[in-house]
Description:
The structure holds 2 protein chains of 2 kinds. By secondary structure, chain A is mostly helical. Chain A contains 5 helices and no strands. Chain A has one domain: Helix Hairpins (Orthogonal Bundle). Helices cover about 75% and strands about 0% of the residues of chain A. The longest helix of chain A is centred in the C-terminal third of the chain and has 32 residues. Chain A is elongated and about 70 Å long. By secondary structure, chain B is mostly helical. Chain B has one domain. Chain B is built from 20 helices and 2 strands. A two-stranded antiparallel ribbon of chain B has the order 1-2. In chain B, helix 14 packs antiparallel against helix 16 and helix 16 packs parallel to helix 19. The longest helix of chain B is centred in the middle third of the chain and has 32 residues. The two termini of chain B are about 25 Å apart. The model of chain B has no long low-confidence stretch (mean pLDDT about 90). At the A-B interface, helix 2, helix 3, helix 4 and helix 5 of A face helix 5 and helix 6 of B.
Amino acid sequence: MNLLTVLGRILDNYEECAAMVLFAIGFFMLILHRNLIKKIIGMNIMDTAMYLFLASIGYIEGRAAPVLEDGAADPALYINPIPTGLVLTGIVVSVSFTAIMLALSVRLYRRYRTLNLDDIYTIIREERK
Amino acid sequence: MSFVLNFPAVSIVLSLAASVASVAARRWAKQISCLVVVLGMAMSAAVLAYTASAGAAFTYVMGQAPAPWGNELRIGILEPLFALLFGLVLLLCILSGETTLSEKADPKKRYLFFVLCDLIQASLFALCYTNDLFTSYVFIEICTIASSGILMIRDNGPTATAATRYMIFSLVGSSLFLLGVIMLYGVTGHLLMEPLRKAVASVWAAGTYRLPLRVIIVLLVVGLGIKSGLFPFHFWMADTYGTSLPGAAGILSGIVSKGYIFLLLKLVHRVIGPDVFYASGAQNVLFLFGVLGMIVGSISAIHTSDVRHMIAYSSAAQIGYIYMGVGISPALGTVAALFHVLTHALTKPALFLSASRLADVSGGSNDFHALQGSAHRNRVAGIVFSVGSMSMVGIPAFMGFISKIQFALAGAQAGAKMLPTFIALAVSTVLNVLYFMRTVIRIYTPAPEQGEHVVRARQQLVFDGTALCFIGLNVAIGLFSQPVIELLGRGLALLG
């Protein structure tokens, strides 16, 4: 496989590629950033990337959103509804996760007056001594 | 007998309803939880009796749409068996962990512990029974949220930090899992497990999408591996299990991590198919990390002087055993792994709960030296800790011994993996002896400076009762293991 075919494939699937780049950005923010709020932002970027990936799998060019319009029930008129449904479920899941992570961050900030996880670990270690 | 077919769905819905009811009737939250767990266990037992006597699995369609579009449950022998196990351990942890709950949690928030237990039960049952990949993802997330909630019940700084860490690792794990599910959907166009398996087999046989399939297998395995604490992702365990309430630690280490492992086994046998999975090379990676986890977890356990951290690191080692078994072979090795899931689920909560009892009579300290003589101050906790330790080490008459025999038998027929399996088992057993027996000797060494006193209260009676259940089951299954192993073997054949 030469470079041109690889580039061609990337261009063909540019939505999926963008989703993967965003996923990687969010993933590494979630793992490597020490600030809790930035971790949560990273988590949201990662989830959004996943929704883009899902939506692009289910999208068929030139077709309508899978909502019945004027009683037209022919499936050939609409895009694949399953990935869209999964995106909706995924959004619910990620909203709950964001809420819990924010609640945890508030609790940690009240207790330690910092959002930096490294600083929090240092304080805990000193308290143990 | 056809009404039995409804039980799996009813038990899931009942636990979800119980979590809502417990919020409405806070004063009765504990009673509602216990009732629902007992009902769930009874229904699982009935389903198990039904499928075991029929010798066949059945599918339960949820909603109107038939396969391959709709959502369904599929129930063989292993699914209700593990639901029964999860229910039993959950019940014992709720009963036994309640004392520390009332001592260490805010009285206004105590009912939340039971609400979260209901949610954990619902999600574990759903993970056992579901036949849909995306439903598994949703219930994995519900389980994660409930688990981090159960950690946060104890309202202090280190616990909140541990819960944050647990959440971050869990999020990474579930994101990778979701990515794997989406890619699998992209390659095959299915989310139900049986159509997926056919599609995966034909894609693999055609040889066109082998690289994406390998990536998908890696994503699914790594995602669930992180969540269940496979080496090298076990670092969250020590803080998480070490700082939470003992009941919560028992639930998380005993059953929540096993729920993910059970799902992984379902993925291997029902979605990817053992032929494709064991041809992709993924089993060798699981074997390697399992063995490394056994050794590294045990070495970390030796290094720590905090007993609860020690038990947590020992969990990492035991999870390593399970993954090693899955890596050895799809039949014998996996049966050994399944048996070890039972062993660990019945032993580890007992260890966490008894260690916390021993710490209570040692000035509240979990430190190894402070625990000296504690088994004389609380005899039942001392006996439970010793039995749990002996089971984990692999002394005959306990479940841990049977696990190790099963791993060795599976390893003996595994060709090139025979020698590494034997060496890993031997080294890990020696290391287990070092840290567990050292602690058992320490808690039985009389402490001259502290007078003997035994705690006798109503709560102690509850603890004694649950302890008796844990020990009794451990010894009973340890002595009469053959029927259980046969049942696991039959269940594994039906899992695919």
